[in-house]
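Late entry, evening session. Most of the bench is empty. Finally got around to the prediction I had been postponing all week. Sequence below, unchanged from the version circulated by S.P.
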Amino acid sequence: MPTYITLLKLTEQGIKNIKDAPARVEQAAKAMESGGGKFIGFYLVMGEYDYVCIGEAPSDEAMMTFLLALGALGNVKTTTMKAFSKEQFSEFVKKLP
């Protein structure tokens, strides 16, 4: 399954309701699983972003659907990157001319 790294920032609504955030994270994990994906890691971080999530989804379309649903709740804004493993990287390099 493709891997995705998502950087998340709390919105004003999200920080106002921060006490509910752990339950929202669990709900998000369940929603991702219902779409065929899974959370690999979730981290509260310091700096420009508030959370980093690493997950897998069956396709870009499945991940986008999850992200749109997450964003529609209004608690976070997301920036998502598709990630490739070191094995995939090696394969890409082997194909270079």
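Two things to note before I forget:
The chain has four helices and four strands.
Residues 3 and 56 are 5 Å apart (CA to CA).
Will write this up properly tomorrow.
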